[in-house]
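ARCHIVE CARD
Drawer: 12
Card no.: 0347
Subject: one protein chain, sequence and derived structure
Cross-reference: see card 0346
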Amino acid sequence: MKRIKSFFRYDNIGLLYLLPAFIYMMIFVGYPIISNIILSLQNVSVKNLVKGEKKFIGFENYATIFHDPVFLKAMGNTLLFTVACLIFQFLIGFLLALLFHKKFRLAKPVRGLTMIPWMMPMTVTALMFKFMFSTDVGIINYILKAAGLIQENIEWLTTPGTAMIAVVIANVWIGIPFNTILLSTGLTTIPQELYESASVDGANSWQRLIKITLPLLRPTIESVLVLGFIYTFKVYDLVYVMTEGGPVNSTHLLSTYSYKLSFDLFQYSKGSAVANILFLILLLVGMLYLKITMQGEED
């Protein structure tokens, strides 16, 4: 007892304040992760779940899904979806951040309004875009027809090529505010005197952007891209509501395919294996983000 009291004395007292959070994380985060890993190493389906038979088969589920063409398609779709969303939402968010960094009367109110897509529930946004991209009554086809760009309605959500474009556009619309706010915050940390000195030396706007803004904004840009990758790579509800992974698996992501295996095909162990692969990728990216953050603090 005396050893325990002496351990929590002075600097170690902070561990007592962390204990409730640690217990909470172990129960609601640690246990589900461990349970899911164990499930992926067993053979559990709707056939043997009722009987309570959970045969241990090792990494057989992982070997099976890596030979599954739908899984490989979902992996490729996830990478394509993530990269496309990151590129467009970052570029648009960066341009908006530069715009709102300018001093004009409506800068702050308009910047606040841009947060609406980020604050809306994902399912509401998905339903809204599903209606906008519908073939007969969607506003997207109406606008394109009115502009003379198309003659017949495009079947956005029922054609493999255009379905991915539709879900990317929807997710970009959601991610733009996140990029804008973080990049705007990063711009405020750059001293204005640097721009004034560069202007005196004859630097134009493009040179100030390349030589001052981008180098000094590098830590913020790295954080935005890594966090954006994590948020985008695990998207589920947006794609499920809009397309349910279709048509012909053209919009299946790792998250939606894991759900389909577990709750549509009732292959719980294979669904857990897909979810664990998704978790492993995000864990590696999260470790990269921590490394970048720690390096930024040291610099």
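Annotation on reverse: The beta strands are 42-43, 55-56. The mean pLDDT is 86.
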